[in-house]
Specification:
It is built from seven helices and no strands. Helix content is about 65%, strand content about 0%.
């Protein structure tokens, strides 16, 4: 697991990595990954730089949770780097080739990951990797 379970600790990791990136300070490999994802999302820079990192992001407020969104990007990247579930790296590369944009490919994959995690949590069971991978393969379509 990349991170602990404490929400405040996770958000401070994002803020610290981003602060270091913008100050031109050296980053650990994990901090560099986090800062890369933050950099891809200028709409979240203010949230990551905020003094109020403990703020809630309720759907009814009309703004998605930037930390959740960026965490899903990091999750996809971790899955691809380890090819777990087996075959996800091929799907990622096929989607990237189809979209011409790694960020766009990750966004498509995030939808499948979020749905799989929601089913897992609502059903109180581990994520179904086979179902998840099937969703991803349908995204990639004939590219696989």
């Amino acid at each position: 697991m990349i991170f602990g379970q404490d929400r405040g600790e996770l958000r401070r990791m994002y803020a610290d990595a981003w602060r270091k990136r913008t100050a031109g300070r050296p980053l650990s490999p994990l901090e560099a990954q986090i800062a890369d994802v933050v950099d891809m999302h200028p709409e979240y820079h203010e949230d990551v730089s905020s003094e109020d990192l403990d703020r809630d992001f309720a759907p009814e407020d009309g703004k998605s949770n930037p930390f959740l969104h960026m965490g899903l990007h990091l999750g996809i990247r971790e899955q691809v780097s380890t090819d777990r579930p087996a075959g996800i790296a091929a799907v990622y590369h096929a989607l990237a080739a189809r979209t011409g944009d790694l960020h766009a490919a990750e966004h498509e994959m995030i939808e499948c990951l979020a749905e799989t995690l929601w089913e897992s949590q609502s059903g109180n069971h581990p994520p179904d990797e086979d179902r998840y991978l099937e969703r991803l393969r349908r995204l990639a379509g004939s590219a696989l």
